[in-house]
Specification:
Elements: H1 3-20, H2 33-52, E1 56-57, E2 63-65, H3 66-73, H4 78-83, E3 86-88, E4 94-97, H5 102-111, E5 120-129, E6 141-150, H6 155-171, E7 177-183, H7 187-203, H8 210-218, H9 229-235, H10 247-262, E8 268-269, E9 281-289, E10 297-303, H11 307-310, E11 318-324, H12 325-334, E12 346-350, H13 356-367, E13 372-374, H14 381-390, E14 395-399, H15 401-406, E15 408-413, E16 421-424, H16 428-447
Parallel strand pairs: 1-5, 7-8, 12-13, 12-14
Antiparallel strand pairs: 2-4, 3-4, 5-6, 6-11, 7-9, 9-10, 10-11, 14-15, 15-16
The structure holds adenosine-5'-triphosphate and magnesium ion.
Amino acid sequence: MPGSCWARMLKRNSRETMSRNIQGVRGMNDLFPDTTQVWQRVESVLRETGWLYGYREIRTPLLERTDLFSQSIGGGTDIVEKEMYTFVDQGRESLSLRPEATASTVRACIQHGLLHNRQQRFWYLGPMFRRERPQKGRYRQFHQFGIEAFGWSGPDIDAEIIQVGERILRTLGVDGITLEINTLGSESSRIRYRRALTGYLLKHQGNLDEDSRSRLERNPLRILDSKNPQTRRILAEAPVLRDYLEPDERLHFTRLCTMLEDSGVRYSINDRLVRGLDYYTSTVFEWTTSELGAQAAVCAGGRYDSLVESRGGRSTPGIGFAMGLERLIELVQLGGNEGNPAHADIYVIDTTGDSVPSTRRAEALRDIGIRVISHCGGGKLANQLKRADQSGAILALITGEREAELGVVQVKPMRQNIGQIELPADQIVNWCQDYLNDFRTTEARHDR
Ligand code: ATP
Ligand code: MG
């Protein structure tokens, strides 16, 4: 057979194998139990922290009309220009998977009148979608925890939102994070600043990187974000937004700084922090880390005082942040805080062929909150004990023919170097409860 024929056949075969063996979408992750366990722990800290500050959960659909995002986030932004998953459905409507959730939250609030004469504090948690180049810490489906507060215009809520973020990072024991804040002022101050910045950058146009040059017309503020060394050198001499603020805008920012200092929050002011979404006004902030390479942003947010009105609602100030869970969890794991990998307290082994009494005992243990895995499917005792060990269980309960006849159970401590104990079957539940309590108290003492 000529070579090209072979090549064609191989290609066809590999295509056929592929179609039988379908892979997941690039940049969209499967999570397995060892990892979901860490996720659940982090998620519960997020929920509880929201709850501590009086924020309540909002859930919006993963799909929205495309216009919602292009109009809220802004046509000149990377998200809208390049990153959205957009399709036309059978009803010929253009829909997009949400790339972030602030626009959806605002849409839901306006649509259901949630902001009429009311202030609102919300949190959300769920997947977002952006078609970016996948790499460590940057995925096409990723997760955000976010909070949003509507109806407050003073700096006290800005400080509160930042404190929520700080508390989450502290509770999770995440180190090496820095907080940067800045203010973008109002729309009108920004227009004046934009003019000054564009004037300055036009003089240096020839030395700007290509990306920045193309932003000069569309979105010059984003140039402040540039990582290009030469552009950064030019920016060092550029006009600073803070010099273009109205006195009340300046006061808002200095009051926020004082509040953060009073509550012991450490921050630095970064004049170049602008954020990539068009809707931000006034306060903006970002937590970054040096531990995750190029994907440094862990959580970011700011005020969006004109967004509600621009979407057709009554003028309502708003502020929020979004925290990336993949990056957060990576940091939690780096810090070795991922929690106990065990997935059982007790493993139940039964070699009698009639497991009804063992199952009843397992249920009684679960009734008092003890995690029990029953070894289903029989097999050799040695194999069952191996499984018990793999489960991370602290105790194994073993019932064989002899034990069943005598009404006893063998209890095997799996994590302590002590022998097996034989106990009357009706004492097992209480005994296990006491043993597990003692075991955990001792462990906690060791951890400290
Ligand atoms: P970056 O500068 O890393 O692209 P961003 O400014 O686009 O971040 P935001 O839109 O502010 O990010 O989203 C808030 C947080 O969501 C980020 O700080 C980050 O932790 C996380 N995040 C954003 N995009 C991704 C992604 N593609 N994969 C994983 N996490 C992401
Ligand atoms: Mg981005």
